Amino acid sequence: MNIKNKIPVKAGVAKQSPPEFLGDCFAHSLIFDFALMNTDIQFPHGLAMTVPTHWMEVKNPFQLKNYFMKFAPSFYLKNIHIRCAMFLLFSLTTTHIYAQPKKQISADTALFFDSHFHLTNYVQEGISIQKFLSIMGTTTGRSTLFGIPLQQQWSYSNTGDFAPTYYLASDAPLYYYSFTDAYIAMTYRSLSAKDQKRFDPMITGFNPADMYAADHIKRVLLLFPGVFSGIGEFSIHKEFVSSKIAGEVASLTNPALDRILDFCAESGLLSILHNDIDMPFPKSGQDPYLIKQIVDLFRKHKNTKIIWAHCGLGRIVRPVEEQISFLDKFLADPTLSHVCFDISWSEVAKYIVRTPATIKATATLINKYPDRFLFGTDEVAPPDAEKYQAVYRSYQPLLAQLSAEARYKLLKGNYTRLFDEARVSVRAWEKAHQNDSTVTVPISTTSSGTGNQD
Ligand SMILES: [Zn+2]
Questions:
Q1: Reduced to 3 states, what is the DSSP secondary structure of residue 188?
Q2: Where does the Amidohydrolase-related domain lie (predicted)?
Q3: Which candidate, 195, 198, 184, 95, places its Cα nearest to that of 143?
């Protein structure tokens, strides 16, 4: 496990003598914060400690706490001398404590990792990756990186000299723009190795109603190995958008989507799916048929890791009646444990922080299922850090009501777990298939002809 960050001891405890301090670390779980980010733990008076390797296998401070509680009977913890002795003994038998001159150490200042970010817009324009890096600064540790799979056509017959840049600005159709994947891959490759580590590029330029979509995804991986962590955000049912796309309309029941999700299971690609939970403005009592379809789809693809974007909400697709209890039931269902939710998009933030009751209900849900929610901005080519961080700021009332564990996992921990896992699996898949042809000639069938003709 490659953990490089080092955090200085908190100022408030630095005045204590080392034994008391160590005892207090153990008793008050301050040590768990260090174990989260450090290989070396720095103590006052120039002492430092190398964290035992098996601690580092504990994925986060809360698992570490459980680990301690399992092996340290509570009566030991009540006596500070025994606490200190036990801690020191434990450390000495598994590692070494040594004097070390004070050195400059940098703190992890990231507020969040962004699980949902668009570098470009509906006409494939956006900000440069260097600009985005400067916006991320030290406050955004890591981010996903994707464009938008759809291009808004500038139809002169429809809007004349007006060049639409958003899908709501024209009645002309949208079409799938596969070049976005090459653009994102080349953008990522323009970065230094150090900066690349901060990004998880995603493949989006496929038509989910096309049985060949999975082949496109595979081709992108083979053409740009070492780049992508997942697919998406791609949409099946999206208010105002789905019906505007040229060609066959996408559907949750289309076998083309099964092929895509099957390939994600095979390769380890993480999938970010946008699918509205209901149709806009449903009539009272209208069957929310999309819920049944999407749950069936998820159950069919148990081995695919999926993030359901925006908790299924939209600009006008409101929370279904009893949305919280629906989510509660969904999250408790073991057949759906491979599905997480992101709370990205300013529109979603509006629903969640609308009233003290909505904040409390959402916080209770996230506290109950801390492994299943991810923070994201859903910003599209933001002009500056002020705009980029707006969604994060608007969630402050929610964050204030989360447990330390749930807050950490929402903002960073779940991102790290899911995307790191995807990186490892996808790199392994690429390695195993590196000799496969990057340009697959479709196998001809009696109905498709001989394949290689003009
Ligand atoms: Zn989005």
A1: helix
A2: 114-419
A3: 198
The CA distance from 124 to 200, in Å, is 19
* Ligand 1 center–CA 59 separation, angstroms: 28
* β-sheet bridge partners, residue 152: 174
* HEC readout, 272-284: EEECCCCCCCCCC
The whole-model pTM stands at 0.74
User: pLDDT grade, residue 54 (50/70/90)?
Assistant: very low
Q: Is residue 333 part of a domain?
A: yes
Average pLDDT, the chain: 80
Tokens representing 236?
């099946």
The answer to whether the beta carbons of residues 165 and 125 sit under 8 Å apart is yes
What's the 92 CA to ligand 1 centre distance in angstroms? 50
The 10s digit of each residue's pLDDT in 318-352 is 665 578 888 999 999 999 999 999 999 999 999 89
Neighbours of ion ligand 1 (CB under 5 A): 233, 378
Of 56, 72, 99, at which residue does a domain stop?
A: 99
Spatial neighbors of 46 by CB under 8 A, at least 6 apart, are 99, 100, 101, 102
Same domain for 250 and 369, yes or no, is yes
Residue 36: alpha-carbon gap to chain centroid:
19
Same domain, 18 and 130: no
Q: Are residues 120 and 93 in the same domain?
A: no
Residue 26: is its pLDDT beyond 70?
no
Based on the fold, state whether residues 195 and 340 are members of the same structural domain: yes
Distance 233 CA to ligand 1 centre (A): 6
User: Which distant-in-sequence residues (6+ apart) come within 8 Å of 375 by Cβ?
Assistant: 112, 113, 114, 115, 342, 343, 344, 392, 395, 410, 411, 415
Phi, psi of 380 (to 5 degrees): -115, 110
Note down the domain range covering 63.
11-99
The reply to whether 95 and 117 lie within a common domain is no
Q: How far is the CA of 26 from the centre of ligand 1 (A)?
A: 42
Amino acid residing at 191: L
